């Protein structure tokens, strides 16, 4: 059974870079056709897609975040990562990683999510 | 960006009720729509994809319909575990977007 697990600091200072990793277990991140994505949810609010990546390294980002986002993949570790630079309080959210069956697709399964708070 | 608008934003119902949640896209998205259920403190759970295909393991009381711009999620007989927030998501566009959510509460 495929499982995803987010990890990283729960507290980031304003203007710094948020860094999270998603570890995939129970399957290979290099499986053909699957994409891997990041989604976030500010406390009490809705869901926002951040971006997606293929195991080859091809990336697709939400234009509203594109200037600050980098998503990368490490197939040797079966992980993909998110970096969000120049964070502000507005970036405080639960960050989820998830699998897509193809580039344009639904998300399933999801990681449990990790809360990242931006505060000095 | 394709805007997804859900209605209602919240409502109350009783166990055994039949409920319908609506999701409207700002432009046609064919059947490229998914529905999720989210409970407090948990990740969203996929219920339906391709507008009407039930994800494996999801109870058959959940059903989805629609195409183009108007979609519905129906729960035929509410159970206690169904009280949650529901989101729609379009994947027609490279900019994937979600609805704002519909909170279903116990009456």
Concise synopsis of the structure shown:
Chain A is mainly β and 120 residues long.
Which descriptors would you attach to this protein?
heterodimer, A: 120 residues, mainly beta, globular, B: 107 residues, seven-stranded mixed β-sheet
Structural notes for this entry:
The complex is a heterodimer of chains A (120) and B (107). With 120 residues, chain A is an all-beta fold. Chain A has no helices and 11 strands. In chain A, strands 2, 4, 5, 6, 9, 10 and 11 form a 7-stranded mixed sheet that branches. In chain A, β5 and β6 form a beta hairpin. Chain A is globular, with a radius of gyration of 13 Å. In chain B, the strands form 2 sheets. In chain B, strands 2, 4, 5, 6, 9, 10 and 11 form a 7-stranded mixed sheet that branches. In chain B, strands 1-3-8-7 form a 4-stranded antiparallel sheet, with no helix packed on it. Chain B is globular and about 35 Å long. The A-B interface holds A 37, 46-49, 52, 60, 62-63, 96, 98, 103-113 and B 32, 34, 36, 42-46, 49, 55, 87, 89, 91-101.
Shape of chain A: globular
Distance between the termini of chain A: 39 Å
Major sheet of chain B: 7 strands, mixed
User: Kindly state the mean pLDDT of chain A as a whole number?
Assistant: 97
- Name the helicity range of chain A: under 10%
Overall 3D geometry of chain B?
Answer: globular
Radius of gyration of chain A: 13 Å
């Amino acid at each position: 059974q495929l499982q995803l697990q987010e990890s990283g600091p729960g507290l980031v200072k304003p203007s710094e870079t948020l860094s999270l990793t998603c570890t995939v277990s129970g399957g290979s991140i290099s499986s053909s056709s699957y994409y891997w994505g990041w989604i976030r949810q500010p406390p009490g609010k809705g869901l926002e897609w951040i971006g997606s990546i293929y195991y080859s390294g091809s990336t697709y980002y939400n234009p509203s975040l594109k200037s600050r986002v980098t998503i990368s993949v490490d197939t040797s570790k079966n992980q993909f990562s998110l970096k969000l630079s120049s964070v502000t309080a507005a970036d405080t959210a639960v960050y989820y990683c998830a699998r897509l069956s193809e580039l344009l697709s639904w998300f399933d399964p999801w990681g449990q999510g990790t809360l990242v708070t931006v505060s000095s | 960006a394709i805007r997804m608008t859900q209605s209602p934003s919240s409502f109350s119902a009783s166990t055994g009720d039949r409920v319908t949640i609506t999701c409207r896209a700002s432009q046609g998205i064919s059947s490229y729509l998914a529905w999720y259920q989210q409970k407090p403190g948990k990740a969203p759970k996929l219920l339906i994809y391709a507008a009407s295909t039930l994800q494996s393991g999801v109870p058959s009381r959940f059903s989805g319909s629609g195409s183009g711009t108007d979609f519905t999620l129906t729960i035929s007989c509410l159970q206690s575990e169904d009280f949650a927030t529901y989101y729609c998501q379009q994947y027609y566009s490279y900019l994937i977007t979600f609805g704002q959510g519909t909170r279903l509460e116990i009456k």
